[in-house]
C-alpha cells in the first residue's frame, strides 16, 4: 500500500476513498495468483498504470462483475485485510452466501466469521446486527452466536432456526436465555444484583450480571468465580468486580435474608483484600441495608 501511495499518489487516493478493499487488492494483486516471485516495483507500476479495475480483478483471478466490486466496497478500511479479500472470493462462489453478501450494508470480520462457521450462519438479521453492533456491554456477537449454535447442535436441534427474528441484542439474549431455560441450564443473564454497584472516587465496584461476565472475570483474575454460576442463578450468591481501591473479585452470600461478604480476593486468590478495603466493602453493604 505504501509503495502504491508513493508511486501513484493520485491513483491511490482516489481508489482508497471509493473502495479501500479494492485498493488493497490492487496493491497486492500478485498475492492472489500464487506466483513464484514478487513483481518488482517497476512491474507493479506498469500493471497499475495499464490495467483498469475489471482487468486487474481478472488478472488476480477474482470475479470482475459490478456486484463483486460493489461488495468489495462494503468492507470498511479497518476490516480490509488480504485474508478477508481471499475469503470473499471463496464465499462468492457459493450462491447462498453471495446473495447474503450482496444485501448487507457493511461487511466486517464478524460477517466473514459467521459465513465460514460450519454450518454457516445465513441469517440476514444476525448479519446486520454483527455488522452494525458487534459488541454489546460484555458480550460479543461471536461469543454468543457460537455458544448458542453449539449448544443447540449438542442438543440435536437445528443449529440456527432464528432467520430474520433477532434484530437487536436484547432479542438475541432473550433467545439464548429461552433456550438455556428449555434445556435446564443456568441462564446467561442473572437476576438484578441485590446491591447496586458504586462508582466513587476511591471506591468502585461493579456487579457481574451474566455468565459471560463471570467467565471474563475468572480469566482476567485467574480464579474460579465462574464455578459459582449455579448459586448466582439461584440467588444464593452474587459476584462483583472490585476496581478501586484495589483490583479484586468479591463474592457475597445471602444468609438469613441478609447479604454478607463471602470472600474478596485479589488476582489468582493470592490473598484477601487489605483490611481498609474490607472495611469499605462492609460499609457498602451496611449502607444498602440502611437504605
Which tags fit this structure?
15 helices, single chain, 3 domains, 291 residues, alpha+beta
Give an account of the 3D structure:
The protein has 291 residues and is of the alpha+beta class. 50% of the residues lie in helices and 12% in strands. It has three domains: 1-91, no CATH class; 107-189, no CATH class; 198-290, no CATH class. The strands form two sheets. The protein has a five-stranded antiparallel sheet with strand order 3-4-5-6-7, sandwiched between helices. Strands 1-2 form a two-stranded antiparallel sheet. A hairpin with a 3-residue loop joins strand 5 (237-244) and strand 6 (248-255). The protein is elongated. It starts with a helix and ends with a helix.
How much of the sequence is in beta strands?
5-15%
Q: How much helix, percentage-wise, in residues?
A: 40-55%
Give average pLDDT, whole number. Answer: 90
Shape: elongated
**Widest beta sheet: strand line-up:** 3-4-5-6-7
Amino acid at each position: 500500500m505504501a509503495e502504491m501511495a508513493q508511486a501513484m499518489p493520485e491513483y491511490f487516493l482516489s481508489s482508497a476513498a471509493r473502495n479501500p478493499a479494492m485498493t488493497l487488492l490492487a496493491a497486492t494483486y500478485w498475492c492472489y495468483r500464487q506466483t513464484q516471485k514478487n513483481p518488482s516495483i517497476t512491474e507493479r507500476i506498469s500493471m497499475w498504470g495499464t490495467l483498469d479495475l475489471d482487468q486487474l480483478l481478472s488478472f488476480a483471478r477474482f470475479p470482475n462483475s459490478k456486484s463483486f466490486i460493489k461488495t468489495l466496497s462494503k468492507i470498511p478500511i479497518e476490516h480490509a485485510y488480504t485474508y478477508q479479500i481471499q475469503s470473499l472470493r471463496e464465499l462468492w462462489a457459493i450462491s447462498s452466501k453471495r446473495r447474503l453478501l450482496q444485501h448487507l450494508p457493511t461487511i466486517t470480520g464478524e460477517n466473514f466469521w459467521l459465513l465460514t462457521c460450519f454450518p454457516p450462519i445465513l441469517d440476514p438479521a444476525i448479519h446486520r446486527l454483527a455488522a452494525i453492533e458487534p459488541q454489546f456491554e460484555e458480550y460479543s456477537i461471536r461469543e454468543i452466536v457460537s455458544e448458542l449454535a453449539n449448544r443447540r447442535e449438542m442438543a440435536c436441534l437445528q443449529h440456527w432456526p432464528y432467520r430474520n427474528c433477532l434484530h437487536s441484542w436484547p432479542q438475541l439474549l432473550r433467545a439464548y436465555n429461552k433456550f438455556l431455560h428449555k434445556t435446564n441450564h443456568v441462564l446467561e443473564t442473572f437476576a438484578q444484583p441485590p446491591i447496586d454497584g458504586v462508582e466513587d472516587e476511591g471506591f468502585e465496584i461493579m456487579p457481574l450480571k451474566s455468565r459471560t461476565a463471570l467467565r471474563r472475570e475468572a480469566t482476567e483474575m485467574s480464579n474460579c468465580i465462574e464455578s459459582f454460576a449455579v448459586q448466582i442463578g439461584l440467588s444464593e450468591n452474587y459476584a462483583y468486580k472490585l476496581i478501586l481501591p484495589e483490583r479484586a473479585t468479591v463474592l457475597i452470600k445471602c444468609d438469613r435474608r441478609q447479604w454478607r461478604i463471602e470472600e474478596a480476593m485479589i488476582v489468582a486468590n493470592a490473598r484477601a483484600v487489605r483490611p481498609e478495603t474490607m472495611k469499605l466493602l462492609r460499609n457498602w453493604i451496611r449502607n444498602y441495608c440502611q437504605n
